[in-house]
């Protein structure tokens, strides 16, 4: 280990328990929840194996009145939850880490779509999460009952084996709704002054400590700033006062910024490593208890600086532990160059928002620990010394070459361009996306360590070259191209856009003149990011999209609000709910997505960001020419970077193996008599 990093491996006492080091995996969603406990347990176990000293669960509901369906959450409602929760605690303990559980009540944030129990809140509030319903104001009997649910859930969590039990007042959830004057307008002992609004939180801490504090640490997760300005909780105002009021009560402070979840897990496009420091750093000056916070930390030197400068006692991480569960082990073993750094793309957040299992652009094994038995650091060796030729060194080809190399095959990776990286080489040049190049950099670094993988840049391959090469297996990873016919997610009618540019042309350096119109019928990052780039370069830009918001799909990566605000701040004109139907002299013709009513906007350069087509001509022409031929990544299915990496990895794992159906967690079933 680099001596400078030794401080990261010091044990830290948290109340009655001791963390073996300072690496703290803060709670994060997995998309598995109570329905898939084995998948969740295996995922957490791998984090502990990778050296995280504390590993926490995702949000774990304490009562049916806190039901976040259709999103995946854990439940701790009665004794039948103990065994599945214990599976996770056991998986974490197997590697010597402490197990934390984030007990949760969402209040007005939980819409209870599954349980159909009326929602609860400090005051009557519209449901906070996109549902046309209302949470009712809690009376004193409700508050008494609520305190009992937290206490009982803590006792069950202790029985399940957890070492750190959370009181959770972050992310707009119930105890936080009591804290904030924006959501608490009560006139009784739980409303009014900040002391009164913090009363429930104090009682929860006292109750939880009394119930389990003899052997378990009690952590308080608090949003010290809800980023709503002086009317809300702020780190200079009432957030600070809450920390002063409760300073020594919890055994650990887990602090962050909140409001929407997107503020806490901000993507790299809108935040730097350590982005919460300004708001959370005051906490340590007010308490003697250990403090943890997050900030997409992937650099060991930044981590050391967090500790030495007294910002926090742990290195809190959710996304960096997803991208690399073995991050602590790699630092400990002096292999920091091998850390698979999170790129901050928030595809992991999208998985939860879509209601599917966790996935990651950098780590294709994330979420597959139980379902497919994949391990981030281990892969079965291939039984024979066979030769593979991989054509194309984008995310899919790089990942396939690396994983095949780790299996011991003799791999040649041929890339047409001078530089490796494919799409990420281009996409990382867009504003805010420079971290995306880490997808290439990590793979290039790891490939360079494998003597059995040879890389050939500036090697455009033809079908004849490939046939002559004589490899046992050929993998085509030649990527995709943007369509020119206007067909996208919402428009299926071909259009004559022969004078328009696509993102491929823009990256290739096409000239952009006069007023620019970008037609986005792709809805992920590309249309908005190109609009931002061109507006920054001084062009007058109109972004036209048939959706009602700009870059609609970025709502899943918790970025949409930030994207739209930035475009508006840069003076980009948004033409929402509109299609571009034609480009004529100096204008683009628009049609309303609802009524078809036609208008036009000035346009000298039209850029269409619609669908993509696989670049599979090489693959098609090789059919029947080579014995073992496969295509991976965008060449098979144009999609996200995460899907391309996964596709390359999956191919490498399964080469020479049967493709067994992934395991499923089915609920116990008894046939009707
Ligand atoms: P993916 O996301 O599936 O990895 P990319 O578009 O990022 O796809 O990468 C495809 C890569 O394949 C690009 O770097 C491209 O230059 C390369 N490529 C395309 N055709 C050939 C070819 N005939 N020979 C070698 N490399 C190629
Ligand atoms: Fe990081 Fe993206 Fe992976 Fe999430 S999906 S952990 S943001 S690389």
- Principal-axes geometry comes out as globular
Low-pLDDT sequence parts: none
Distance from N terminus to C terminus (CA atoms, Å) equals 63 Å
Portion of residues within helices: 25-40%
How many distinct helices?
22
The first-level CATH class name of the largest domain: Alpha Beta
CATH architectural arrangement of the largest domain? Alpha-Beta Barrel
Bound molecules: adenosine-5'-diphosphate, iron/sulfur cluster
Nearest-angstrom radius of gyration? 26 Å
CATH third-level topology of the largest domain: TIM Barrel
Give keywords.
FAD/NAD(P)-binding domain, 3 domains, TIM Barrel, Rossmann fold, binds adenosine-5'-diphosphate, 19% strand, 29% helix, alpha/beta, 9-stranded parallel β-sheet, 5-stranded parallel β-sheet, binds iron/sulfur cluster, 673 residues
Protein model, in words:
With 673 residues, the protein is α/β, with parallel strands linked by helices. It has three domains: 3-354, Alpha-Beta Barrel (TIM Barrel), CATH 3.20.20; 387-479 and 615-654, NAD(P)-binding Rossmann-like Domain (Rossmann fold), CATH 3.40.50; 484-612, 3-Layer(bba) Sandwich (FAD/NAD(P)-binding domain). Helix content is 29%, strand content 19%. It contains 22 helices and 28 strands. The strands form seven sheets. Strands 3, 4, 5, 6, 10, 11, 12, 13 and 14 form a nine-stranded parallel beta sheet that branches. Helix 14 links the parallel strand 15 and strand 16 (410-414). Helix 1 runs parallel beside helix 2 (82-93), helix 3 runs parallel beside helix 6 and helix 14 (395-406) packs parallel to helix 22 (641-654). The longest helix is centred in the first third of the chain and has 21 residues, at 140-160. The radius of gyration is 26 Å and the shape is globular. It starts with 11 loop residues before the first strand and ends in a 19-residue tail after the last helix. The mean pLDDT is 96.
